[in-house]
């Protein structure tokens, strides 16, 4: 493992010239930083627009043969403000003009969307005195729109010298396939940083944003929830899947392969400890059994009842295939001897409930099918829960004491989490009650 750090800065961290100055202070204070990965400028305030959103608007207008000059002017003004305020000496006008012409020539949605990171990367590299590397030259996708790890790693190791003091800026969010720009999903700059950390065997991957790491619960629900100092990859996956959003959920995978930790830090409060995301092998005594509480609303439960269901070896396969052919992801499948329930999000179901039930009747010949909606799922996650007695009892007691009715319970074999199904209307009450049971 190399004694270097890869640092990614989010859109809010690079939204203005004053934020650029903060980033420079952070980077200059840590000589181990080898590569900086910038996002496109984010919102300066609540009424502002993200640069990427404006670029998508340019693409939409251009693809319909409409003028996008006014929106592109807004983009240009944002970059000129940064450039002029920091006295960055580059030919920004020519860069913007070339991009505008390429959008008019319909170079594609991904090309258009990625130009915020591209320009920001050029500006930041010049401002920091770092070498700029276009992500299209080192981040490669394959036919399946997944990272071509071998080709990407070779390119990064060839371009980046580990034997000198040269430092680099590589824009986030995009790469290339067959010489054409390809992007990750929104928030994909997190993935770029992780891919680079993996390729260069970095000691640490820093992810700088506008919050001081992960919180035990949503601060919109729980007042002043505690910060999570340390969390494992697996715990983070569970919480991210259930709605806790600070880091792109796919950003874990590249660094996980080599056990590289991720440090979530606040650009505006660099003195804060932040959250360290580590491999499962890292041991540390824990003050709390529960690491985090997260959840999502709006699920539907479809329960299929059939006598001797457990003796029908093809039953489960036929049930799952109904959802597969309708392109619906299944969240959970709690079961009994003669019944099984399928939990799906309303967003996935998308008006297909009647069709699903009809196909179940045809292929499964059930005794009964019952569906119920308006369910929320709450996940209680923590490595400290494994083989610890009484966790479930504390959760259920907390919910019962606060008048929350439990509709479903699911616990994986890893014992890393307990997932509880409740009424949508009880969602906030449930999270507050569980938090109080373990943290107050």
List keywords for this structure.
single chain, alpha/beta, Carbamate kinase, VC0802-like, 5-stranded antiparallel sheet, 14 helices, 37% helix, amino-acid biosynthesis, Asp/Glu/Uridylate_kinase
Structure description:
Belongs to the aspartokinase family. α1 links the parallel β1 and β2 (33-38). The longest helix is centred in the N-terminal third of the chain and has 20 residues, at 109-128. By secondary structure, this protein is an alpha/beta fold. The protein has helices at residues 17-28, 51-63, 69-85, 92-104, 109-128, 149-159, 189-199, 233-241, 252-256, 315-325, 346-349, 353-364, 391-401, 427-439; strands spanning 5-9, 33-38, 131-132, 168-169, 174-177, 180-183, 204-209, 230-232, 262-266, 275-278, 292-305, 339-345, 368-381, 406-411, 417-423. Strands 3-4-2-1-7-9-10-8 form an eight-stranded mixed beta sheet. The protein has a five-stranded antiparallel beta sheet with strand order 12-11-13-15-14. A two-stranded antiparallel sheet has the order 5-6. It has 14 helices and 15 strands. The protein has two domains: 12-200 and 236-253, 3-Layer(aba) Sandwich (Carbamate kinase); 292-439, VC0802-like (2-Layer Sandwich).
């Amino acid at each position: 493992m190399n004694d270097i750090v890869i640092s990614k800065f989010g859109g809010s961290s690079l939204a203005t010239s004053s934020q650029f100055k903060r980033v420079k202070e952070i980077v200059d204070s840590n000589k181990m930083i080898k590569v900086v990965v910038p996002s496109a400028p984010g919102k300066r305030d609540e009424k502002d627009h993200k640069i990427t959103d404006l670029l998508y608007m340019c693409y939409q207008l251009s693809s319909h043969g409409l003028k996008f000059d006014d929106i592109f002017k807004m983009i240009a003004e944002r970059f000129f403000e940064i450039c002029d305020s920091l006295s960055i000496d580059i030919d920004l006008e020519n860069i913007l003009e070339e991009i505008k012409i390429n959008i008019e020539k319909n170079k594609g949605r991904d090309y258009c969307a990625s130009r915020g990171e591209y320009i920001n990367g050029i500006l930041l590299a010049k401002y920091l005195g770092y070498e700029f590397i276009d992500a299209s030259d080192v981040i490669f996708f394959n036919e399946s729109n997944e990272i071509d790890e071998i080709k990407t790693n070779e390119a990064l190791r060839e371009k980046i010298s580990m034997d000198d003091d040269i430092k680099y800026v590589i824009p986030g969010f995009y790469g290339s396939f067959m010489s054409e720009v390809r992007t990750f999903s929104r928030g994909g700059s997190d993935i770029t940083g992780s891919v680079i950390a993996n390729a260069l065997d970095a000691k640490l991957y820093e992810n700088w944003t506008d919050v001081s790491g992960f919180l035990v619960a949503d601060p919109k629900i729980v007042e002043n929830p505690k910060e999570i100092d340390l969390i494992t990859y697996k715990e983070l996956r569970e919480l991210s899947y259930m709605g806790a959003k600070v880091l792109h959920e796919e950003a874990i995978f590249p660094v996980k392969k080599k056990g590289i930790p991720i440090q979530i830090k606040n650009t505006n409060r660099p003195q804060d400890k932040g959250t360290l995301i580590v491999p499962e092998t890292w041991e540390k005594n824990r003050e709390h059994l529960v690491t985090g509480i997260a959840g999502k609303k709006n699920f539907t439960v479809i329960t299929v009842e059939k006598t001797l269901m457990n003796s029908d070896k093809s039953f489960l396969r036929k049930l799952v295939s109904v959802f597969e052919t309708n392109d619906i992801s299944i969240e959970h499948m709690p079961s009994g001897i003669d019944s099984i329930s399928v939990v799906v999000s309303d967003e996935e179901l998308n008006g297909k409930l009647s069709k699903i039930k009809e196909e179940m009747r045809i292929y499964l010949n059930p005794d009964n099918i019952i569906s119920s909606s308006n369910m929320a799922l709450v996940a209680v996650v923590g490595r400290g829960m494994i083989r610890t007695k009484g966790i479930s009892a504390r959760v259920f007691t907390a919910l019962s004491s606060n008048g929350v009715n439990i509709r479903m319970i699911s616990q994986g074999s890893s014992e890393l989490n307990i997932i509880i199904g409740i009424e949508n209307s009880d969602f906030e009450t449930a999270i507050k009650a569980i938090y109080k049971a373990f943290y107050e």
